[in-house]
Request: fold
Amino acid sequence: MKVSDHWVRSPLLMVNRACQTCHNVSEAELQARVATIQDRTAGLIDRAAVAMTDMLDALREAKAAGAPPETLERLYALQRQAMWRLDFVASENSMGFHADQESARLLAESIDLSRQAQALAVRARAPAAPRVALPTEPVEGVTPTEKAPRGPYREKAAAPPPPPAPDAGAPDAGG
Ligand code: HEC
Reply:
């Protein structure tokens, strides 16, 4: 194992030794890339935190309104999934700089899971929606799946849709 430094501090304080062995660009360029990535990641962390507090409020309200145990269980599962992802990125402490897409993926999932839980919690105590009878139109101007270039997402698109979630469809009465 190569040990180049024994200081426990941010490697960004010595970009020359810590980074330029692999990254053949100027120190200023490298610092600028890191700053951009960290600003964007911090913005996503803030959004995920707001989504999470909104979810927790909605969850407490659903519980207080007497949502049934099955609904609460689904809500708690979504809550755990959302929290793990946000906690991981927030505590891992790089602010996304060395794996920006992975950080963004986890935060995007966290935001989505929090909002899913929030929507489910609100729906659990909302009255049933009226029937919607608006006309639908076919999608236009998009490359059809069979003409798109190969990629794993294509196989997924061609696969049959997953079975619906237990309570998809009519809104939950909420008990
Ligand atoms: C051992 C080699 C190595 C060292 C040392 C290293 N990196 Fe990287 N770095 C990589 C590789 C490989 C990737 C691509 C990772 C990926 O795409 O998943 C990367 C990706 C990045 C990225 C995101 C892609 C981009 O270019 O915008 C940034 C920013 C970055 N490194 C900055 C740094 C900084 C700053 C340091 C020093 C603190 C550093 N790296 C140290 C190998 C290294």
